[in-house]
Amino acid sequence: MNPMSITTSSAFWKSGDGVSDQFPAGLRVLVVDDDPTCLRILEEMLRICLYEVTKCSRAEVALKLLRDNKDGFDVVISDVHMPDMDGFKLLEHIGLEMDLPVISK
């Protein structure tokens, strides 16, 4: 085994080689979307990847969850068009207040 390799429960990362086709099990994902169908589909897809999924239908509630659980999530997947707060505004708050990657859809 290469001494520069790191093995996790479901992902194999090699220094300089990039990432394998395995998903990192246990990734804590917050999904934010006002469309309940999109929320359900994303939740199902992410759980297949063995991610821990928290879903939220309002950006303001998602922001409160993030503020109350500063180390509780690894990534946020957010819709851009939501009635209570624009997804880009949510991204701005997350960027200013915490070091957390956001995927906008």
Total helical elements: 3
- β-strand percent reads 15-25%
Low-confidence stretches: 1-16
Count of DSSP strands: 7
The rough form would be described as globular
Q: Give the strand order of the largest sheet, numbering strands 1, 2, ... along the chain.
A: 5-4-6-7
Would you list the SSEs in sequence order as H and E?
Answer: EEEEHEHEHE
**What's the CATH H-level superfamily name?**
Response regulator
User: C-alpha Rg, in Å?
Assistant: 15 Å
Number of domains: 1
Structure write-up:
With 105 residues, the protein is of the alpha/beta class. The protein has a single domain, classed as Rossmann fold (3-Layer(aba) Sandwich), CATH 3.40.50.2300. The chain has three helices and seven strands. α3 links the parallel β6 and β7. The N terminus is likely disordered.
Outline of the structure:
The chain has 105 residues and is of the alpha/beta class.
List the helices and strands and how they pair.
Blueprint: E1 5-7, E2 12-14, E3 18-19, E4 28-32, H1 36-48, E5 52-56, H2 59-68, E6 75-78, H3 87-97, E7 102-104
Parallel strand pairs: 4-5, 4-6, 6-7
Antiparallel strand pairs: 1-2, 2-3
Keywords:
single chain, 105 residues, alpha/beta, Rossmann fold, 3 helices, globular, transcription, phosphoprotein, transcription regulation, Response regulatory domain-containing protein
